[in-house]
């Protein structure tokens, strides 16, 4: 079992930045794929950024170049740095962990463990 707790959400104006963190506990000695997802009201949860156990990353097209996913394995913490935020980035953001897939993935069904989410609101 892996427990995930997100933090760092909040409200910001368009063009601003926010940094999200996800603290993992439990069976963190295992190699894991990890990712960030988001869900806006009335929309499906979508993958934003993924990082494989070997550190390779993948991004959803709309955030490429603005968001950066990273991890600190010693601290069992996943990060998402979000720059140049837009109103359409407004959503609940979730941290996820799953088996060590060969490639970083943005597919929901390839993740097993989920955090409770942290709200990000971007005003115009």
Question: Your description of this structure?
Answer:
- A hairpin with a 4-residue loop joins strand 7 and strand 8.
- The radius of gyration is 13 Å and the shape is globular.
- The chain has 124 residues and is an all-beta fold.
- Strands 2, 4, 5, 6, 9, 10 and 11 form a 7-stranded mixed beta sheet that branches. Strands 1-3-8-7 form a 4-stranded antiparallel beta sheet, with no helix packed on it.
- Helices cover 0% and strands 51% of the residues.
- The protein contains no helices and 11 strands.
Order of helices and strands: EEEEEEEEEEE
Roughly what is the average pLDDT, rounded to an integer? 95
Radius of gyration: 13 Å
**Proportion in helices:** under 10%
Number of helices: 0
Q: Label the overall shape.
A: globular
Give the tally of β-strands.
11
Please describe the biggest sheet, giving its number of strands, its sense, and whether it closes into a barrel: 7 strands, mixed
Structural class: mainly beta
Q: Which spans have pLDDT < 50 for at least 5 consecutive residues?
A: none
Separation, N- and C-terminal Cα atoms: 40 Å
Query: What proportion strand?
Result: over 45%
Short description:
32% of the residues are buried. The protein has strands at 2-7, 10-13, 18-26, 33-39, 46-51, 57-59, 67-72, 77-82, 91-98, 113-114, 118-123.
Keywords, separated by commas or semicolons:
seven-stranded mixed beta sheet, 124 residues, mainly beta
């Amino acid at each position: 079992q892996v427990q995930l707790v997100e933090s760092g959400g909040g409200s910001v104006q368009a063009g601003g930045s926010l940094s999200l963190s996800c603290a993992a506990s439990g069976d963190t000695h295992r190699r894991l794929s990890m990712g960030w997802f988001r869900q806006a009201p009335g929309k499906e949860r979508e993958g934003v950024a993924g990082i494989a156990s070997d550190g390779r990353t993948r991004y959803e097209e709309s955030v490429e170049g603005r968001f950066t996913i990273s991890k600190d394995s010693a601290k069992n913490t996943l990060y998402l740095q979000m720059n140049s935020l837009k109103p359409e980035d407004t959503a609940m953001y979730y941290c996820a962990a799953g088996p060590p897939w060969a490639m970083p993935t943005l597919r929901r069904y390839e993740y097993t463990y989920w955090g409770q989410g942290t709200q990000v609101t971007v005003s115009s």
